[in-house]
Design brief:
This protein has 196 residues and is an alpha+beta fold. It is 22% helix and 26% strand. It has five helices and nine strands. It has helices spanning 9-19, 24-31, 35-42, 50-59, 64-69, and strands at residues 86-87, 94-97, 108-114, 130-137, 139-144, 147-152, 156-160, 165-168, 175-182. The strands form two sheets. Strands 1-2-3-9-4-7 form a six-stranded antiparallel beta sheet. It is globular, with a radius of gyration of 16 Å. The two termini are 13 Å apart.
Length: 196
């Protein structure tokens, strides 16, 4: 999971693990992954999937936005340029979070990009809150509580995030979605995360 700016995923994970006084083995046990997984990620030998990183960060607990944005909150402001959005995707899926470091943010707004074949994973996602979005370009198959629909540009969704859900781009073009969720799972450490 290397951000375009060359973000040091392994170094950041090691920093957070050590700050909490955890061994690689203890973090792996808490996250339900192998010890070698933690080791390889910290060495930047592998790029973790969104779901793998989520499991590891939940065990710390640290949100994905805090992981990528760092610990320094920013002063509230009203407008954000494209380059100011925080990339919290996995290198294949792009999730660009608006106002990632804004203190006490009440919701997450995300600009999402799914290349052809992209999938949030075979494990269905479930977390507290509600989420919704509008497909801006392309198409996406969304499964919620066993019901699947293919949505195209202009179509939208809104559901209780506690229901098992999954996003897959089965099309031949990139899918772009603008979504929102509440509570802002991408900002509060330990909470489940939207789409990951």
């Amino acid at each position: 999971m290397q951000a375009e700016s060359g973000f040091d995923v392994g170094g950041r994970l090691r920093q957070l693990r050590l700050a909490r006084g955890l061994s690689q083995r203890e973090l792996a046990k808490r996250a339900g992954v192998t010890n070698s997984t933690i080791s390889l990620i910290e060495q930047n030998s592998v790029s973790p999937s969104v779901s793998s990183l989520k499991k590891i960060l939940d065990a710390l607990p640290v949100s994905i936005s805090a992981f990528f944005a760092g610990d320094e909150p920013s002063a509230p402001k009203a407008f954000y340029r494209a380059e100011e959005l925080t990339e919290i995707g996995d290198g294949r899926l792009s999730f660009r979070l608006v106002a990632a470091r804004r203190p006490e943010r009440g919701m997450s707004i995300i600009h999402e990009r799914y290349p052809p074949g992209a999938d949030t994973g075979v494990e269905m996602l479930e977390h507290e809150g509600e989420e919704g979005g509008v497909v801006v370009a392309g198409e996406i198959e969304i499964t919620v509580n066993g019901e699947s629909e293919v949505l195209r540009a202009g179509d939208a969704y809104y559901f209780d995030s506690r229901l098992p859900h999954r996003f897959r781009n089965l099309g031949e073009a990139e899918c772009v979605i603008v979504s929102a969720n509440t509570p802002p799972g991408f900002s509060d450490g330990g909470q489940e995360l939207h789409h990951v």
